[in-house]
Write a structure and sequence with these properties.
disordered N terminus, mainly alpha
Amino acid sequence: MRPHPSREEQIEQTYALNLIMTLLPLAILPLLYIPFVYSSLPSFNDTSTTIFDVSDSPSSNNTRTLWDIIWSCAATLFACTWTAIHPNIPGMDEGKFAVFSRRLGIMMIALIAPELMITWATIQFFSARDTAKSFNDAFGAQLHRARSDCGDTGESITALLSEIPTSDRTNSPHPSAPHVANRDFRGWTVTHGFFAWMGGFMLYVNGKPRATLTPDELLGFVRDGSVEMPVIVEADIEDRSKGDALSKGIAILQLAWFVLQLVARYVQNLPITLLELDTLALAALAGIAYGFWWKKPKDVGRPHAVYWKATTSLSRTLANDQVNVESPTEGWRAFLFTCGYPLFSLAGFGTSNSSRAVYSRRVSSVGGYDQYSVSRRPIIILLVGCLSGAVFGGIHCLGWNVLFRGHAEQILWRAASLAIVSAPVFILLLSGYMTWLNGLDGVSGKIEVSLQVIGIFALFASFASFFIYIVVRVILIVLILMSFQSLPPGVYDTVAWTSFIPHL
């Protein structure tokens, strides 16, 4: 008789089922372009040969194929999604398939809603900067006292530098000890803040891992003397990272080369496919996310150990050691939760610990930020996210005069592009109004009731705009796939780079 599955096995099975239900529609959607691509290729059974109109082309001898276009866009999309994503640290006992599938899901979200990636990167950047400032304010006073003491006593520059290094990059290249005294605090950078929020510090109690510490918990335990301040310099963190300046620079060069090709085609009056236009929009937003994530470690596999040294046992419950959300396990509610929770979490509405995250001893895969940092600057974060969405739609408006197979498809593309531009702006205005409404004091009763009613309508309008945005994004993807049926002939002409060189 087969034994009943354990709680952990049930969690694993539920997670896999929900992941399949979420990724299956997204995986089927790209397959729809196969018949459109096939129909755009010349038939080998026909006796006639397709002749492209290249009379206006600067170079009729050099052409590209449809597969060249798809490969160029695919390489750029991979560079701006898979390689640009900086995930949080996985669980210590998680397998490669779980880590891969979780990153694949984030990649799918980045392809459909790249603005959420920018919002997520912005929130994590502010959280990392605030955390670094908090630790430096709490433990950095001793650095200033050491500098003043060295100046008063006339100690040598060598002794001063050996006591207080000016940069993490100049510290000793030898690995840091598991824990050292607070007097050895070297100062934190934004990289330390990123590392802390992505689950970089694991608390060990009696030699066994307990849970990842939030920066606030680590700060409190250090102040209480329960743990010693971990000394891990920026060079050590970067050594754990799988992405350095070279790998990030190669990805940026791929994006820059793709953009340069499109600009050159525009200068030489060569048509651009809708797939290239959509890839350009994704690449532009990926560059913004890259900027916020530039100092964040990438693909770190193991956290840094922090050991509990207090004589008393750890009685309090840690933030990442408790399940504060029970996800539905079956039915349409499980599907909606699996699809909706990552979107709201990436947008900064808060993170929750699932049973799988607690069991794996890791932070939420779509979390890793401080909700207080979001509440401190909601307008800035909202402005970055909404303006990114408007830029994304504005780039799609560049295809305003692209020739479609039918006039209805052209009208639909224009309407969808305008909707993507206007929906984030509408959400920004409504959110600004609700923020202003919450700050009003001293209004009369009737006016207050009226404003509250208007605020409720504004809230529903914001959610409606968010839903419309998702719908029109799917419409754009479908139109891009349908455009392979009738590509303009000049699309296959390559750029004549020699025309940009004078006297050639």
